[in-house]
Design a protein that fits this description.
2 copies of one chain form a homodimer. Chain A is an alpha/beta fold. The first copy, chain A, has 12 helices and 12 strands. In chain A, the strands form 2 sheets. In chain A, strands 2-1-3-4-5-11 form a 6-stranded parallel β-sheet, sandwiched between helices. In chain A, strands 7-6-8-9-10-12 form a 6-stranded mixed β-sheet, with helices on both faces. In chain A, α7 packs parallel to α8 and α9 packs across α10. Chain A starts with a helix and ends in a 5-residue tail after the last strand. In chain A, 53% of the residues are buried. The mean pLDDT of chain A is 93. The interface between A and B is large, with 49 and 50 residues. Chain A binds a DNA duplex through α3.
DNA sequence: GCTTCCAGTGGGAGCGCTCCCAAAGCGCAC
DNA sequence: GTGCGCTTTGGGAGCGCTCCCACTGGAAGC
């Protein structure tokens, strides 16, 4: 019957297939995706959930680029992208509902906070879940992450190789795995060079917090000659503080960031930073999810980072 | 029957309602949204389509903030957000499909290029369509926009009020309505002050194009003492060029931008710019769409802009 | 000639809801 | 007691697909 012709199933004669095609054109027939979804028990959509307590973290261009990558990969698998901002209570409720009633064929989870209830819910949900960036705690079954430890180590080693001896760190939030991993990488490199690591001075990944942390650093350790900031925003803030304090970058204080967002290129001086493949992160998350939806069992993926040297260090 | 109890319909006795609720809890019953969608002919989702030939324009934090606003408003109406990046051919095909087969209850359209085929498709589609920002050409039936003309006028008048007499402009893409409207606003203000408007020197809304345009400007009109750039990215580029040319901002050249994104705050010097309510734009688009889905007939909306004075002018 | 096989076809059942309709129950006025 | 109008209840058609099953007829094998 018609259904077979439309889905190019076998056991359909050429004549019949053409007849159906003609009829489709004449009548302007379009299949109803909802009916198909009901019959096949597949919604044809994947959800990208961005957690975090503050909706404005989503304004970080990071997520937009993840989406670009994920969207392209989902397009290839003919899946729609549902975007869920789980910042508000309302938003979280709706994500919970989505997981319970299988409102999507699979879910990508990002920016989870520590002990995020979504982790448990995802665990109980009877549908594929891919994590973007490992959450704090035990590693989930399926995730895509970037090599935060390696990137931070490389960044710090670069500072050391420049002859710097008082290499400080401005950490990101330590209730995120990325924040912790980047501190570990820094620590590894400093210890490896026989230097003393600084204690984890914590920012919250914003420009402002980077500026504040840098001010504290300069006050407590006037002899600091290098800083690894756990992301570009904080590095930009640090740059500003150093400049305002009348010191030069990189002559007096060398600064390295992490992310390689636009801000790194337009900063003054342009920021040496750890490049991470953000679109690829989104793309690989989506591909992993598609594989799961298709019944395969992919393995977790850690994408490489790469130091990009510019003027700040 | 059960359906009535679950949807709090009338004509259900208290006893029955409680019995149903108990059964639901015991069995862990969750209604199937797909089946509901098929029966009600409502998908429970709204699509946000971002057109434009380059997927990377989506990386502009502008869209992320629109999404934050739209997502919040859709949450309130219990609609899911489907995000469609219509940059690739594949993406455009899928949006077309979405429109034709009513894969969503309504669609929000943004970043349309001139003569974008989506405009016609949206017209023919039998479902509510709200435009975010007017497209070039005749105004659509339903849209939300910001007051680009008024904002540009105010920005330019500010430069004039500072005593500047050679007020140049760096336009955005003139194949977008925002680009054109902002040039009109500039032109109105300059003419109103009895000065000569500069011809529309065109950039493409990127930092790099702003820098290049500023270089051309300085070469051709060394006496320029003020610039209105049609967005912050280009203004930041202009800032860089002015600095590199050894001139001071704002002493020698005053610069005003448009958008009030993060880049305006972290620029050196911080950018005087036209603030536009981006989250509100998203929110109002979503609300307008919800109204349409509910059978109401809302009127187009133009949101006000506001000049935010910082150090650059 | 007959059976055996299989590509091709038509007919429904079923997906899990909503919504309408008819029947039942019940109070009230006559 | 009967008739009327109301709330409450159960039953089932229908949403538009997919997928299975039973059937047909022609080619191949004996």
């Amino acid at each position: 019957m018609a259904s077979r012709a439309l889905n190019n199933a076998p056991h359909v004669s050429r004549a019949k297939r053409e007849a159906v095609e003609r009829a489709v054109r004449q009548l302007g027939y379009v299949p109803n995706p909802t009916a198909r979804a009901l019959a096949t028990r597949q919604t044809g959509a994947a959800a990208l959930v961005v957690s975090g307590e503050d909706p404005s973290i989503f304004a970080d261009p990071f997520f937009a680029r993840v989406i670009v990558g994920a969207s392209a990969a989902l397009d290839e698998a003919d899946l729609h992208l549902m975007l869920c901002l789980a910042a508000s209570d309302r938003g979280r409720k709706r994500v919970e509902e989505l997981l319970r009633c299988r409102g999507a064929d699979g879910v990508m989870l990002m920016a989870l906070r520590e002990d995020d209830p979504l982790i448990r819910m995802a665990d109980e949900a009877q549908l594929p879940v891919v994590f973007g960036g490992r959450p704090v705690g035990p590693a989930p079954r399926w995730y895509v992450d970037v090599d935060n430890v390696g990137g931070a180590r490389e960044a710090t080693e670069h500072l050391v190789s420049l002859g710097r001896r008082r290499v400080a760190v401005i950490c990101g939030r330590l209730d995120t795995e990325a924040g912790r991993a980047r501190y570990r990488g820094y620590r590894d490199a400093v210890l490896g060079a026989g230097l003393d690591p600084f204690p984890p001075l914590q920012g919250d990944f914003t420009e402002r917090s980077g500026a504040a942390a840098m001010a504290a650093l300069l006050a407590e350790h006037p002899d600091v000659d290098a800083v690894f900031a756990a992301n570009d925003n904080m590095a930009a803030g640090a740059l500003r503080t150093v400049r305002e304090a009348g010191r030069r970058v990189p002559a007096d204080v060398a600064v390295v960031g992490f992310d390689d967002l636009t801000v790194a290129q337009v900063a003054d001086p342009p920021l040496t930073t750890v490049h991470q493949p953000i679109e690829a992160l989104g793309r690989e998350m989506a591909r992993m999810l598609v594989a799961l939806v298709n019944g395969q069992d992919p393995t977790p993926l850690v994408l490489p980072t790469r130091l990009t040297v510019r003027a700040s260090a």
